[in-house]
Sequence to fold (146 residues):
Amino acid sequence: MMNMNVIGVSDIFNKENSKIQRCLWTIIIFTCLGLMIAQLYSRLILYLSVPVNVNVRVIHNESLRFPVVTLCERNYYNVSAALELLGVDTIPTNTTPSDFIEGNLLGKKVKDAYELWNLTKQDINTLITEVSCDLYPAERCILGSI
Fold:
């Protein structure tokens, strides 16, 4: 108890202090503790006595139009364009396309991420054709016309 950082508590347990000093510190500590508890109780009662009003109004925006179809490509890059830049046919199975492309192109064949993106970004027309080919029979999938 002598190593406590609370001022006064170490003085209460210090045998070198007189009984009057130890008693005085005990009274001071318990008085402050009692006042702190009274303040906490007072603030808690005040907080709980005030009602809380929350007004929520939901407004539906009818003028905002969302697209009927959203195309989400799983790969950040056009993998076939990246493979062509790398001069390889496939991506190893133990890595993701993004990790393989970034690890082998950035700083080696391409100077920065901006150039990598421009060389391997998705082409919207190709993406639409690929999605359409997944949705419709093969005879309707002729590159460039759907």
